[in-house]
């Protein structure tokens, strides 16, 4: 399993992915899940993947091969991010037509999902979530981020913190906290990480960093976030049950249900 998150903000884009893939607790490997297509001054595209590694690698390799051929529809000449998302979706469907039946015979699901984001020319930065069927949705002001893979552990902090107005630095911090929470709760997600930051209208990658345990900032987040969560938890008062409204009514309902069950048993 893996975890990837991307945020489309007023200031630009923040993307973060892990690099762990596994086939059991004793077979863990590292593969990068982030692919960057960059032509400075023209476009920056970031593609992140989750799911069956053979399927996602096939999709990415086909996209790369098509991008290397002149006079062919590709990520290099698509006029908009929407058209790029459509190309990725068509490529997923092509891999499905080729491999899905054979995978089914071996009991393997066709499992693949992608996040595509970036900016082309004068259009604003955009963010898409592309599904295994090749269809996709686009992020909005109300929902400025997408996650794929093992997303549930890292979602609460993003929901509480991130909006379209969040700065790139704050969004990067939030993404790293989200990843740390996921790593702590799921062994199938792990370091090293790929962190990419893109500033609106620059049409070049601002930062693309590899984050491992020797990274002092991520190490600080890993230690301080957990410690401060415990402090906040301990600072909250314990419940005063005597002041909870409706306690007597709830108890009486329990007694009625218990008595009713008892009578049914006797009958």
Automatic annotation (TrEMBL):
CDD domains: proteasome_beta_bacterial. InterPro entries: Ntn_hydrolases_N, Proteasome_sua/b, UCP009120_prtse. One of its GO terms (cellular component) is proteasome complex. One of its GO terms (molecular function) is peptidase activity. Keywords: Hydrolase, Protease, Proteasome. Pfam families: Proteasome. GO terms for biological process: proteolysis. This is Proteasome-type protease. It comes from Thauera mechernichensis. The lineage of its organism: Bacteria, Pseudomonadati, Pseudomonadota, Betaproteobacteria, Rhodocyclales.
